[in-house]
Amino acid sequence: MTQRFLDALLDEASGTFRPAGRFAYHYARGKLSSDCIFRELLRRGIFPAEGRFLDLGCGQGSLFAWLLAARRLADRGEWPADWAPAPRPLALRGVELMQKDVDRAARAFGRDHPLVRIEQGDMNAVDFGQAEVITILDALHYFDHTLQRDVVRRIRNALTPGGLFLTRVGDASAGLPYHICNAVDRAVTFVRGHRLPRLYCRPLADWKTLIFEEGFSVETMDMNEGKPFANVMLVCRVPG
Ligand SMILES: C[S@@+](CC[C@H](N)C(=O)[O-])C[C@H]1O[C@@H](n2cnc3c(N)ncnc32)[C@H](O)[C@@H]1O
Fold it and tell me: What is the mean pLDDT of the chain?
């Protein structure tokens, strides 16, 4: 059941990107199938039952396609009994620096989608509004430590009581796996059209301290499934 369900979920989510072209489709399919966070966030019920989502550095919107696909499968009664219930997104707003990703998202979701709005912008400048869930997956290390704190503080202010901030960060104290991660990140970023980026990572303990100091409780989730990576998912909650 689980493998058939996962295949159906992957088909449904990556199918969103067919109108956006081959690259968008295969990128989404590769990412959603190879990165276990997408599956684990749903299986473990990390998201609230419903809410407004804001994804900062959202790329072409793979997370949103995944959440919408999950909702559709759940509504059709095709949801595994041993998984947490699928969340019901009330709004899905993404902010992405690269116009190419935003254009792909527009072709995938359509410009008049009732829930999805993906805009070109810099998370260091845009107004976050209000949300129940804010995510930054693999993007917080692209700017310096002062800006990182500022973003985390603005996220805390934008979240409603009980809100969730989910972020995946590189652990600079992890030794070789950390250096492998950084090399992969720099190569992928370069291939996607950015200049070779300078990365501003911290040891895991420093990430946790920063987020705690800004008013969150913080838990770590291991989501590498044996791969030699030093990326750690932080599940950060605003007191309810
Ligand atoms: C490693 S990619 C991850 C994309 C997406 N979160 C995903 O999981 O598919 C990081 C993304 O963050 C974006 N990004 C980097 N700095 C940003 C900023 N200051 N504001 C908005 N987006 C940013 C990059 O353009 C890139 O698309």
Answer: 92
Query: What end-to-end distance do the CA atoms of the chain give, in Å?
Result: 36
Q: Which residues pair with 91 in a beta bridge?
A: 52
Closest Cα to residue 166, out of 75, 72, 78, 238? 238
Strands 131-137 and 116-120: unpaired
Residues 187 and 224 placed together within one structural domain of the fold: yes
Q: Let me know if residue 205 belongs to a domain.
A: yes
Task: Name the DSSP class of 223.
Answer: -
Distance of CA 28 to the CA centre of its chain: 13
Atom of ligand 1 at shortest range from CA of 55: 6
Mean pLDDT of 169-183: 78
Q: 31 CB less than 6 Å from ligand 1?
A: yes
Is there an atom of ligand 1 within 6 Å of 12 CB? no
- Find the domain containing 200 and state its range: 162-240
pLDDT tens per residue, range 36-61: 999 999 999 999 999 999 999 999 99
Is the entire prediction scored with pTM above 0.85?
yes
